[in-house]
Write the structure tokens for this entry.
Amino acid sequence: MRKLAAGNWKMNGMAASLSEVTALLAAHPAPGCEMLLCPPATLVAAMAAQARGSALQVGGQDCHAKLSGAHTGDISAAMLADAGASHVILGHSERRADHGESDEDVRMKTGAAWAAGLVAVVCVGETEAQRDAGQTLAVVGAQLKASLPEGATAANLVIAYEPVWAIGTGRTPTLAEIAEVHGFLRAELTARFGAEAGGMRLLYGGSVKPSNATEIFALADVDGALVGGASLKAADFGAIVAALSAA
Ligand code: PGA
């Protein structure tokens, strides 16, 4: 399976920030892994134009569950595809927290993404209170089950395990804790989708940076990363791409 280094710019990035993409592509024209950046919606078309013919793929950070209609301020999966996106992040914990997105919302959006030909990057992860209460596997298992429609394949689905308490905090689970969750997710996906699950990429996300990428990428069932803060700078994201390429 080809591993995936995915960056999530969140609500960061102006037109001038596309110079980071220029630098990234100059430094990593042919990485040994897939490379994806998900800028804010305002930059998807420009970044996709910049990435055309390169190793970089471009994604959105959310989409509506419907293909079009009276939903002011929302964008559809078809619009992302039309702008040049190939992927969309769905169910990020910030969407779940800020906009009250439920697992069912995420499931509907995933179906919409597939209908538009996009790869869905579906996020799951426990809060710190849930981990402290020993509920991590139950929580991510329930999110995984309810957030995915039937018909998931290795080509149309990527899962990102992102502990909420590790996002943007500089804290990460232990390597054993990451391995435990990833092994559990693989088993759950295999139970539901069969052999196809063996090819689904399972990304770890939450304070991935150049200094911890290599040890995280050495873990079984970690097939890449979803990177927030460290994806904004070409040097940092490029170092993570290099670490994944070498894993
Ligand atoms: P972080 O964010 O790398 O800044 O912790 C990860 C994410 O939310 O995808």
